[in-house]
Structures are given as structure tokens and as C-alpha cells.
Amino acid sequence: MKVGLTNMQEELDSMDAEQLRQARLMLRLTQSQLALEVGVKPGKHMDRTVRRRERGERKVPGSVAILIEQMLRDI
Prior knowledge:
Blueprint: H1 5-12, H2 17-26, H3 31-37, H4 46-54, H5 62-73
Helix pairs in contact: 1-5, 2-5, 3-4
């Protein structure tokens, strides 16, 4: 069966706010450190990006979920 692009995107966007927070804690990273690790542009508000995702105010992009899953495998 052929998987459509929409289904693939849903799979990639499967990390929710609490999973993101738990992953960050397991990685022993601050919000700012995680932001840098996943490619957020450095700046005085970069931790705000992670904070908003951890609160569920913003979706966790599939690319970020993949990076975090890879980081968790490496610990």
C-alpha cells in the first residue's frame, strides 16, 4: 500500500508537548540548549521557541521530532 505525503507528515509530527519536555529532561538540556541542538537561530529569545512547544502553544515540527529521537538513541 502506498503511503501518502499527508500520512507521512502526520507520523513525523507525532511528538506532543509533554513528550518534548520529557525528552529534553532525559537529554539533560536547558530549553536554550535544546533550541541550539535542533537548529533554532541563536538569539536572546531562542528558549521561548522550546517553551512554547512544551506548553503546546506551537506544534513540534516533524524535523525537530526526528532530531530529538536520534539524540535520545545516542544517549
